[in-house]
Amino acid sequence: MTEMTLVQAVNDALRTALQSDDRVILLGEDIGKNGGVFRATEGLQARFGEQRVVDTPLAEAGIIGTSVGLAAGGMKPIPEIQFMGFIYPGFEQIVSHVARLRMRSRSRFTAPMVIRVPYGGRIRAPELHSESTETFFAHTPGLTVVTPSNPYDAKGLLLSAVQSDDPVIFLEPMHIYRSFRQSVPEEPYIVPIGSAQIVKPGRDVTVITWGAMVRDVLDATAKVEATRGIEVEVIDLRTLAPWDEETVFASVNKTGRAVIVHEAVLNLGLGAELAARISEECVLQLEAPVTRVGGLNVPVPLFQLEDLHAPTHARIQRGIDKVLDF
Amino acid sequence: MHDESPHFADAVITTQTGVDTAKETQSLGPFDIPATIEKPEDVQDELLIEIYRQMALLREFDRRSVRLQRAGRIGTYPPLEGQEACQVASTLALRKADYVVPTYRDYGAMMVHGMPMEHILMYWNGRPEGAVIPQDVHVFPLAVPIATQLPHAAGLAWAAKLQGRDEVSLAFFGDGASSEGDFHEAMNFAAVFKLPVVFFCQNNQYAISVPLSRQTATETIAEKAAAYGVTGVRIPGWDAVAVYRAVRDAVVRASRGEGPTLIEALTYRYGPHTTSDDPTKYRPLSEAESWRERDPVETLRQDLNRYRLWDDAKEAELQEWIHETIQAALAKMESLGPVNPLELFDHVYAKLPSHLERAKAEFLTELSHEQTKGDAQ
Ligand SMILES: Cc1ncc(C[n+]2csc(CCOP(=O)(O)OP(=O)(O)O)c2C)c(N)n1
Ligand SMILES: [Mg+2]
């Protein structure tokens, strides 16, 4: 076991993948010599060479598009997009080809790849460096979307993603890249895709969240629990598509109350889908309408106001109060 | 299909794989407009002096901004030191109605064309006021996603052409941007519709850590113009007069209806990509030092001295003006109170839809709640 930050765990998983499978190739902007703008690929080019850890031209359509061909041709690409806000030149490739190659060729060709994307705000970064648009990908059939909330899961989920037969969008929450350390096994291990984790059990309210928001939710709920004498169950969804209905429904059936918290803007955020499905499946157990707490329905602002755009602790607490006081 | 022909394609592929590491740093020249040696006869003394004054101001502004970032008084900042001639001499070749279409690094060009300095500081300080462009200033908002501003410049030029206005768009971009599809599409549109636009590439040799040899297998960026039917010009970007001449001539051609120009200016950013970057990871310090030998600001000052247009007294006076100008802008930024959170809802739509009206009201109530709670503690 080694104490690692989330970004170090990503690095460790990438090293493991490169070491254990010759077909693995990393490609992206500034990932080689520079080790990535977040240092997620630090040291990997020096160790595995320029053919396997590749600085590409500055072109996201090129990065994702060639990854389709690389994957179909027998390689295992792990492209990096520098920030979520810059994925759009590659969006057509993702939606029209990455997600559909299997279906379009009736499984004759497939495009298993892991597209790594730092996302989320609250790091005082410049404009368009703070997006949480996971919905675009979760909305696209054929894609698997994953996001870890801690170093242990980061390594385990990334290694799962590399083994997947289908393309995975691997979202890395920048806000907690370095904010805490955790013991991470040196040997390879898997955290299964498609399984949520109950990070804190409780009997009165279920709060479902993911990524950097998990820690905010734990902090915010601790206060509500203390003042109201209740117990909150917190679920880290971990896989956003296809998400773990079983764990979520079982929890809500137990507590009768559900709040979904995400940094993405509220309107058509993943919370909308979760709320709809919970309402359909848990209707007889629900004591209150499902509530969502999300980013304000306006573009992510320049950084002075970004903390107010994302769910604040006060807004999270009010969401919990709302389902309790219904 | 059974193919007996030799595998020419394979042969081509083997010779082209990998990057020619011997070519990591690109050779300078040849240039379509050479570096200046003689006192230019086609550039008036007053203009030469003005170019120098603005370049010197920009240099000091840039150094000051880096220090402000280090002290936590502004956010992440992308320095441009080394690229002053590219931004100042180019923009001073414009007429007021012409448009500057910038990237994040082109606040120098923005300021020269009328964007207030304090707005630039506020922008990098994460304040919405920093995004305000005065009504009569023909500067487009700076683009952060690489190359995306280039089709906008073509569109602005197209609108001017369609409406019979003599307005040329000057779009800035970097060497890295030449790899994005938007660059190629913009060039193509500009040429097909013969638009009055000038694409000005500041080839500073790097896209963050990635050297030019990784962006393109061609020797130059200027030569890409030929593929689109655009005029391509390559210039020494440290030479203010060469920059001025290239843009001036391109604007004249554009305005006469002779179509777009691609200018590739060779230059170098001495500092990091942004204040979050560490350039020692990817290039030797000596490289920046060798570029400083043809420093744009120093070169022009020495030339002005040589032409007897400048002296130490004038320099001292200039430095004082620069200091005061920057202090005044900084004071304006720092006199502002906290950003009004309600600004989050402004300018999202022409008229705020009712669901956002409600969200705004709710947000306001929440804020005042927290305010009172905070005050009580
Ligand atoms: C579409 C897109 N991809 C990636 C980035 C991240 N990024 C910001 S600046 C930069 C390098 C740009 O290099 P260049 O075009 O040469 O301009 P320079 O920064 O050197 O002025 C990159 C990759 C971005 N802003 N937009
Ligand atoms: Mg560059």
Automatic annotation (TrEMBL), chain A:
<dbReference type="GO" id="GO:0016491">
    <property type="term" value="F:oxidoreductase activity"/>
</dbReference>
<dbReference type="InterPro" id="IPR033248">
    <property type="entry name" value="Transketolase_C"/>
</dbReference>
<dbReference type="Pfam" id="PF02780">
    <property type="entry name" value="Transketolase_C"/>
</dbReference>
<protein>
    <submittedName>
        <fullName>2-oxoisovalerate dehydrogenase</fullName>
    </submittedName>
</protein>
<dbReference type="InterPro" id="IPR029061">
    <property type="entry name" value="THDP-binding"/>
</dbReference>
<dbReference type="InterPro" id="IPR005475">
    <property type="entry name" value="Transketolase-like_Pyr-bd"/>
</dbReference>
<keyword id="KW-0560">Oxidoreductase</keyword>
<dbReference type="Pfam" id="PF02779">
    <property type="entry name" value="Transket_pyr"/>
</dbReference>
<feature type="domain" description="Transketolase-like pyrimidine-binding">
    <location>
        <begin position="4"/>
        <end position="179"/>
    </location>
</feature>
<dbReference type="InterPro" id="IPR009014">
    <property type="entry name" value="Transketo_C/PFOR_II"/>
</dbReference>
<keyword id="KW-0786">Thiamine pyrophosphate</keyword>
